[in-house]
Amino acid sequence: MNAIRSMTGFGQASSEEGEIRISAQLRSVNNRYTDLRFRQPTELAPLEPRMRRKILERVRRGRVEVSIAVERLDGQEARPVLNRALLDELAHAREILTGEYGLRGEPDMASVLALPGIFKLETPEVDWDETQKAALFRALGEAVEALDADRRREGEALRGEILRRLETMSGLASRLRDGAADVPARVRDKLLQRLESLRGEVELDPARVAQEAAFLADRGDVTEEIVRLEGHLRQASTLLGEPDGKPVGKRLDFLVQEIHRETNTVCSKAAELELTRTALTLKAETEKVREQVQNLE
User: Residue 157 above 70 pLDDT?
Assistant: First the structure.
């Protein structure tokens, strides 16, 4: 079955190997491009390019926050270590304040221990042999699958809603087409009727009258805009049936912009109130579809 994906989703998984448990958590949100951001232990930095490739097998667009956590199962937890470098800097600063500025005073133990950064946590690093790397990518792969499933579920819900609105918009476009079919003739007839009432008062040039009638009829003719509008609507519905794995968000966003542009033109050119009302209703539906399309991959 074809699948449309949302850009928002969540997935997590964990895996154990030897003395460690690896947890992977992925959270994706809307973004114009693909943007992966990692939060992980520093020793995993060399594996980040490979992790990126793994995620990009399923994620084509959106911002993804990737969090990798490693838990020791052998009791070797992170322990606080005195930050000697910071203490040395503080001692040097005290010498300057005393010697150069004549400031006196003894720092108390409680104040020193309360200084931010006076302790730093050190966690025993993992050697990351091949079996542990395999566990890491097993957890990451399962988290990616869960994220993809979540994005597909939301995408399918969005597809159904967008298709319903596109059907409504197609009905409005049909009403515009039916109402606009004889608008040029009605505009021309109205002009001729008005001019006929003036025939006894002013001299009219038949050629000029015909020219003006043709001009007004052409200016109020929105047939071409409606034809393009209906074509865009059909194409949008077709895109929502794209084969699995093909992102449609950007292409649909472009089509919605074109639908909006053609509808605006119909609003400005429509010579009758009913046509304008229908076009405004169509414009409102287009705005709702635009908001939903912004969520699609």
Answer: yes
Is the confidence at residue 256, as pLDDT, over 90?
Answer: yes
Handedness of CA 195, 196, 198, 200 (dihedral sign): positive
Range(s) of the domain holding residue 187: 152-293
Is residue 252, in this structure, part of any structural domain at all? yes
- In one-letter notation, the amino acid at residue 288 is K
Element (H, E) at 213: helix 206-219
pLDDT of 30-53, one tens digit each? Answer: 998 999 999 998 889 999 999 999
Q: Which of 249, 286, 184 is nearest to 6 (CA)?
A: 249
Residue pair 241/1 in contact by the 8 Å Cβ criterion = no
Contact 4, 148 (CB under 8 A): no
- Six-digit token string for 205: 């040039």
Indicate whether 208 pLDDT > 70. Answer: no
Number of C-alpha atoms within 13 angstroms, CB side, residue 210? 3
Residues 70 and 186 in one domain: no
Report the amino acid identity of residue 237. Answer: S
